[in-house]
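Entry 12.
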Amino acid sequence: MKYYIIFTLFVASLLFACDNKRPDTAELPRIISTGNPTVDGLTAKIAAQPEEASLYAARAAAYYEMEGFDEAIADMAKAMMIDSNNVQYHYLLADIYLNYYKSQQALQTLERAVQIEPNNNEAVLKLAELQMVLQMHDESMKNLSLVLNRNKLNPVAYFLMGMNFEQTEDDARAINAFQSAIENDPNMADAHLKLGQLFAKKGEEIAIRYFDNAVAAAPNSTMMHYAKAEYLHNNNQLDEALQALREAIIIDQQYLEAYFRSGVIYLEKDSAQQAYKQFDLIVQNDPSNAKAYYYRGLSAEFSGNPSQAKADYQQALTFNSDYPKAQEALDRLKTVQ
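Predicted 3D structure (tokens):
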């Protein structure tokens, strides 16, 4: 489940709202350009309305998209000085901190959000999610129980409970929690996916039903198609797995993991030339991918093209000198020639 998924809508609304409040810039002081039109536009608006907290928050969101974390944090400090009780600002600041590898600051920020609005289930769920990520399972479960005491039908709370149980290797209770999540939200693709993975782990055929449900609930998610393909591949349903990977690639033609797994499957099907094409596509999109060179070389070798295979194995070692399989493949070719 994507972290802070609800917040994405908040950022978009901030940027949209601020872009539609255009001040008369004729009397504004000269603004130093950053080269980013969104940031520069918001900077001009801040010059005209320096006490408008939402402008600082919107610019922080823009900086955050650019991975300008220090600038984003500074802007959020200004926004929260003006409006310290806005929990949406706390969500944004926590997200910035988390992606800046400052997890403790993110945790403290969400704890403040809950202190401001203790009855806000969204704030409690965000805190519980972060606690789960930080492996603070007891604290996370306590907050999730609090939410469920208020609303026994909250699917997100059940989902996060399932994640806590899975991380603590209590698969049976994890399955029960994920099932409760989809009972209350049949379209929760992530819960269907987790159930598919857990039942697959148990070797139960019902797993495929949940993978199918996950794809149906999120047909444009490459992750759902890939997870289904992985399950089918692991169960030696190679043609079905390839079809699921094709669906993922239709959605995202730069989805290199799908090309890689497709190549491996073609090798297992003794279709070395087809495999070569898949690994070649990866190399074209990621020219320093040592693993792709190795497997392209393997495909070339199996296709009866040792010179191409040798070149690819050497390239693999160029980008990863500590790649024993590539070195073993080169040694193997030397003994054959």
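Annotation: Residues 254-337 form a domain with the Serine Threonine Protein Phosphatase 5, Tetratricopeptide repeat fold (CATH 1.25.40.10). Confidence is low (pLDDT under 50) at residues 1-31.
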